[in-house]
Amino acid sequence: MVWTMALKYMGDKLSKYKTIAKVGTSKKIFKDSVFIGYASPVKSEEEAKNFIDKIKKHHSDATHNVYAYIIDNRLKYDDDGEPSGSSGKPIMNILHLANLRNIVVVVSRYFGGTKLGYGGLVKAYGDTAKEAINNSGIIEVFEKEYFKVEFHYNLLNTVKKIIGENGEVIDKNYSDTVIYTVAVEKGTAERVIKKLTDFTKGSVKIKHTKLNLKNYME
Questions:
Q1: Contacts of 46 by beta carbon, 8 Å cutoff, 6+ apart
Q2: What is the pLDDT confidence band of residue 72, given thresholds at 50, 70 and 90?
Q3: For domain 142-217, which CATH number applies: 3.30.70.240, 3.30.465.10, 3.40.50.2000, 1.10.340.30?
């Protein structure tokens, strides 16, 4: 059975969320049935569906290819012939418990001849999905804002320390002075700029810049 739903968020909650860094896999055996899990980061439903189709094609001989995904505020899962709620839903529950977004998980099952029962299926699909996700590496995604800071070389260590504790330098220019392009989490730029100004006694020059990019931070 296929379930499709939409999640409702208050405000701009998806400006910061958790996802996975790369494709992760797992393989587990429950009473002679082999379960093979795949987890992948995705940015759209089309990308999720393409990944599902790829796994289904790769495991075309599997007894079941169960999947679940959450893309922004939309979620969907499919039991693919398993008892309703015994397979796709447990995978979805794993995604919810880990507070993950923009992720798709597929678990392929090769039936080994022994029925697992409803509870056994819930555990098998849930555990396989969880291991694949853990092997993918969970990261936090957030929007960033940017500014440039110009300063003299005698302030290099001070500026590097403050930026290192609050963001990252994405571009450097060395001439008569040093100019760093700095990326920080959205909503924190003013606080970081104030700290730079206070610790250098106003000896830095700040210029705001706009870059429409989303970045990842572990």
A1: none
A2: confident
A3: 3.30.70.240
